[in-house]
Amino acid sequence: MTIIPSILISGAAAGIGKATALKFLAEGWRVGAYDIDRDGLTALANKLADDQRMRLVTGVLDVTDNDNWQQALDDFTSHSGGSLNLLFNNAGILCSGPLADGGLEAQQKLVDVNVRGLLAGCYHALPYLQQAATSDHGARVINMSSASAIYGQPGLAVYSASKFAVRGMTEALDLEWAPHGVKVMDVMPLFVRTRMVTNMNAGSIKRLGVRLTPEDIAATVYRMAHYRGTRVHWPVGLQTKLMMGASKLSPNWLTRLTNRWITR
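Now predict its structure.
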């Protein structure tokens, strides 16, 4: 009997999460699409062909609620025979503009979703991933990071900090969970054409534009799902790859100067 590989995606009702769900369904995976947006999940399911809808599991997930994470994982694995080959920690929010101009509570909520929510997903998913580690499809976590984790971005200070946290957690867990057979990676795009960047107040988006689509990220995540090497960070798009390469080769003062120009 052919065993269908399985992926659980947080923030799957729209944007990158939705595009990733559609990509993996098209490739024959069993997909758990979870989000706080129940209507968005219903719209996702309604657009599918019957064979894809049979492999889709949807559910409401508030990533800042630890119990809700456990419920979502229990729910999804009850449909997948206990298997979880891939957790895609995609859910996230963004606040832009000068730090002093934004509400403190909104910035703190960003940290709750982008950092605490991702931490909870990793923590609760580990036992399920360990069970899948010896399967043909293996076990891995892909975290949603950002080019903002290359160098701190003015106008995106807290968002950038949250993605630095994601980057650090990804690096640490990839080493920590290697003995368990669980690979941990992150995907690092620049700006993606989603609702998140609508009316965004940051100099970098005005200077660099929005060149990536959710489908670009979904295609990268699918490649990462089959990757067997040691690579951890996956920049998406030429701009991000150039920025990451330059940050490794340039002295810190030049990197700082470049980012000041980009975000002016």
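The radius of gyration is 18 Å.
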